Amino acid sequence: MVQLTDDCFAFEGGLIPVEAALERVRARLAPVTGIEAQPLDAALGRILAADVISGLDVPPHDNSAVDGWAVYHDDLNRDGETRLPIGGRVAAGRHLDRAQRRGETIRIFTGAPMPSGDDTRPDTVFMQEDCRVDGDSVVFPPGIRRGANRRFAGEDVKAGATILRSGRRLGPPEIGLAASIGHTTLPVRTALRVAVFSTGDEVREPGTDRSAGAIYDSNRYTLKALLRGLGCSVTDLGILADHGETIRTALAAAADSHDAIITSGGVSTGEEDHVRAAVEAEGQLDAWRLAIKPGRPVALGVVRGTAFLGLPGNPVAVVVTFLHLARPILLALAGADVPTPPRYPVRAGFAYKKKAGRREYVRVRIDPVAGSLPIARRAGSEGAGVLSSLVAADGLIELADDALGLSEGDTAAYLPFSEVMR
Ligand code: AMP
Ligand code: MG
């Protein structure tokens, strides 16, 4: 198992801009997962572990893009109709067993190889709907472009080309592309093994009795779902009491059989926040005061060579810090090379004030507007603990560190959940 160095999350200074945090992560973290071969059918969502280079051209031969008639463009009259005799027929999966002669047309079907020919070669295909069959010949209209409806060998993939890069997460098109060059398996990263637990004496397992002052654990379920969306293999370690020794023992045990440990709650500096002390006792902890709202207290560290990510306790802060910090860290550890998720321009349907010096996220739902930018509207109330407003939201408006807010009608940067909850 690959071990991290203790100082890999070390960061000097006070409030850390999210951008600086991410740069640090990208520069310092390498994959900790192994490599295995998986059949294509089992590769969906997995991370490619090596470049894939094609050994062949796709398509393997020039072929027709339509059902119709193959001709030499040079045989066509420029200004009037052209009548050519039917010389043969070629269907997909077959080939014409002779060269096409000048002055004839060959019946051809979608995907069938273009017939060979003389120096100029049959180079153009008429769609059958555009032609008139008249006995043993076909009448063609004037005006078709040379090369129409003909697909070239290798126009999709050229032999020797790198078609997929190591680190890419495999979706349906990637898997299809690998099949198109004849692969049956792909080298992929083993799933990142992540242990999750919640902390807090007030936190109870859903479905159990809840005494006065207690709440049900939502964070652990949100986190497990977010992690599975990233393709992690998740171990649920339950809810740990606010008790230093309990947390310390659980951390040490989890570190030995996982690539990362993620927790929520207990990382502020309150006297009931025991996670921090437990991590420090077992390894190294770097409290990052991330310049992000909601979110701020985030603790990153290394326990016995395993990454430790301590997220805040408030349910919305959990999601925001997961998406912006934990997600890129976990993907880097998993071996994924994932581009920064795009932000889309939208029109703010509300005004918003903020302080400079931290990035803020506002939960919004999106109203499409015909012919103009969609409008972002506030989704529910703002509190860092109000999980229902995340459910009401389609995504987040991102306000830059130095911005002082938004006026209604301003263009704003929108991050859809669909870009990052996977
Ligand atoms: P903490 O960071 O531990 O002080 O927690 C901050 C807030 O988040 C408190 O209101 C906690 O009750 C709440 N909280 C902590 N853990 C969870 C959890 N697992 N599920 C829901 N709320 C939580
Ligand atoms: Mg707590």
Strand neighbour order, sheet with most strands: 1-19-21-22-18-14-17
What average pLDDT do the residues reach?
94
| DSSP strand count | 29
Distance between the termini: 25 Å
Largest sheet: 7 strands, mixed
Shape: elongated
Structure keywords:
single chain, seven-stranded mixed sheet, six-stranded mixed sheet, 8 helices, 20% helix, 32% strand, elongated, binds adenosine monophosphate
Secondary structure elements and their pairing?
Elements: E1 15-16, H1 18-28, E2 35-39, E3 52-53, E4 63-64, E5 68-71, E6 82-90, E7 105-108, E8 124-127, E9 132-134, E10 137-140, E11 150-151, E12 162-164, H2 172-180, E13 185-189, E14 193-199, E15 203-204, E16 215-216, H3 219-229, E17 233-240, H4 244-257, E18 260-264, H5 275-282, E19 283-290, E20 292-293, E21 297-303, E22 306-311, H6 315-334, E23 344-348, E24 352-353, E25 359-369, E26 372-378, H7 387-392, E27 395-399, E28 405-406, E29 411-416, H8 417-420
Parallel strand pairs: 1-19, 6-7, 14-17, 14-18, 15-16, 18-22, 20-25, 23-26
Antiparallel strand pairs: 2-13, 3-12, 4-11, 5-7, 5-8, 6-10, 9-10, 19-21, 21-22, 23-29, 24-28, 25-26, 25-27, 27-29
Helix pairs in contact: 1-6, 3-6, 4-5
The protein binds adenosine monophosphate (AMP) and magnesium ion (MG).
The site of adenosine monophosphate (AMP) has 19 residues, from helix 3.
